[in-house]
Amino acid sequence: MLPDQYPTRLERRMNMFYRRDPVIHGNIATATSGPLKQHHLEQYKKEGFLWFENLFSDTAIMDNLLKEFSDLEKDQSIVKSEQAICDSNSGSLRSVFGIHELSEEFARLTVSDLILGMVRQLLGSDVYIHQSRINAKPGFVGGGFNWHSDFETWHAEDGMPSMRAVSASLLLNDNNEFNGPLMLIPGSHRYHVPCQGVTPDENWKRSLKSQQVGVPDTASLKRLINNSGIAAPKGGAGSLLLFECNTLHASQRNLSPWPRANAFFVFNSVENALEKPYAGTCPRPDYLAAREATAGLSQVHHAQQVAM
Ligand code: 6CS
Ligand code: FE
Fold first, then answer.
1. What is the CATH number of the domain that holds 280?
2. Domain with 172 in it
3. What is the tens place of the pLDDT at every residue in 112-144?
4. Whose CA is closest to atom 6 on ligand 1?
5. Count of the separate structural domains present in the chain
6. Which of 97, 131, 251, 267 has most ligand 1 atoms within 8 Å of its beta carbon, as the pocket-test mutant?
7. Which whole-number Å values give the CA distances from 121 to 41, 44, 269, in the listed order?
């Protein structure tokens, strides 16, 4: 097991420190061969995320994806399965995991040349899907998410060694200032904020409803937010947010009548395969943290093309 470069879930508080990994991986050749221009790379390095409003502007495709989600949320075999998480208060569907394995339409997005091209530029290698999900916030009852770094959880509870993963979030409907858009702390990806609180066994059975361990302390949050504020990108269905695995983010409850559903695809470098969970807990289910389907997507995609 690789040494633990990012201790967290500790009994005692520990100060934040600079990340030990680059933000953009690989070399100049990999970083400059793809759809992202130099100014995108610089912005991602500085802020820890990139926002592309209305990137997928074909409303027929977006309507189809939203219909696909609505079919998933009506499918009782899915809603009653472990990979669907319902809101503790309203009982409404909060998240469904493994959407790229439940739906061909969502699977197709994981091998979109545009998204794959951007992600491979940032990670400097071939990639695979570590996790996919839809986080849904129905009108008036959609719940919020506490501040957290996804990497902190994926390191502690899934054994992800380094900060070499990117989340692509595709908006399935409008995210406005009232229906709980994702909030990010620009520049927070540059720091590891160790979290206090030992991880209970099978923590994921609770954390996906409401995260209690792995939430940074308020002093660290205050310092980072005073430094660079909070960004909450808003836009229509088809907008895409790419955010670095360690960028701190959260979202408020949805008190508006307008539903908010965002699809997330987490791309991990094939050179960053999961080890044993650093928190010492048992590995989480495959639909939360892939350990089987970890072949590089570009290879798989190429093989499919050749086979066609
Ligand atoms: O535990 C996880 O993997 C999930 N938890 C949060 C709050 N964000 C990332 C991921 O969906
Ligand atoms: Fe998250």
1. 2.60.120.620
2. 39-307
3. 999 999 999 999 999 999 999 999 999 999 999
4. 150
5. 1
6. 131
7. 9, 11, 11
